[in-house]
């Protein structure tokens, strides 16, 4: 697959990152229009329920980084329902849904990456996930990013859908959705742009289409815990 990064040898079947489709290297709109696929498999002694597919946005200046080590995968943080975690910038905290884990260390070097949260169980052969990336900007930047994201996805032939506005700790975030098929799985990716301070926070929730309502309910639960720091 063009742009794929994978390990060779016996470990090549586990825990690599691929880019689908090719990344757009034009502006930070690539955060919304590129998709990283995080693929894992069970290993002897590893906990069950590890995510095996997740869809996350890519960076404007970064392709998929090196594959994570066996150790890095095994020690990825499991997050309970009452445990708050900070984004990498330290500008906000959230409480992930029960059973979700922080998989940020499996994405490699991505400019502006705040966090990657992945559900521990698959639904419809897909692990629901949330990616948060921040970029410099303001309310106009947020509008521009959403407009560019829609244009880029239309050019890729993806079906755009409506996404309701969300409140992110007092900030109104506009958004949209994109439906597509990935490795035989029907996926719905919904993205929102939340301007706060001198940055815009881009949140992308990806789920199987059949689990879209449940994923949104979990997303709303997470947003209710969001606090700016």
TrEMBL record:
<feature type="compositionally biased region" description="Low complexity">
    <location>
        <begin position="44"/>
        <end position="82"/>
    </location>
</feature>
<feature type="region of interest" description="Disordered">
    <location>
        <begin position="44"/>
        <end position="97"/>
    </location>
</feature>
<protein>
    <submittedName>
        <fullName>Uncharacterized protein</fullName>
    </submittedName>
</protein>
């Amino acid at each position: 697959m063009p742009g794929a990064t994978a390990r060779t040898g016996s470990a090549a079947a586990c825990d690599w990152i691929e880019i689908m489709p090719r990344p757009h290297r034009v502006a930070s709109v690539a955060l919304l229009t590129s998709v990283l696929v995080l693929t894992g498999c069970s290993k002897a002694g590893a906990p069950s329920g590890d995510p095996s597919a997740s869809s996350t946005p890519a960076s404007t200046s970064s392709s998929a980084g090196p594959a994570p080590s066996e150790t890095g995968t095994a020690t990825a943080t499991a997050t309970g329902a009452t445990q708050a975690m900070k984004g990498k910038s330290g500008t906000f905290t959230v409480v992930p849904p029960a059973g979700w884990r922080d998989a940020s260390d499996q994405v490699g070097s991505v400019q502006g990456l705040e966090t990657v949260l992945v559900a521990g169980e698959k639904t419809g052969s897909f692990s629901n996930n949330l990616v948060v990336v921040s970029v410099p900007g303001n309310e106009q930047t947020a509008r521009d990013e959403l407009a560019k994201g829609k244009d880029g996805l239309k050019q890729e032939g993806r079906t755009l859908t409506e996404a309701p506005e969300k409140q992110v700790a007092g900030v109104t975030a506009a958004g949209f959705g994109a439906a597509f098929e990935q490795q035989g799985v029907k996926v719905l990716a919904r993205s929102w742009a939340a301007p706060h301070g001198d940055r815009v926070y881009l949140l992308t929730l990806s789920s199987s289409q059949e689990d879209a309502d449940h994923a949104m309910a979990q997303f709303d639960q997470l947003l209710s815990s969001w606090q700016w720091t």
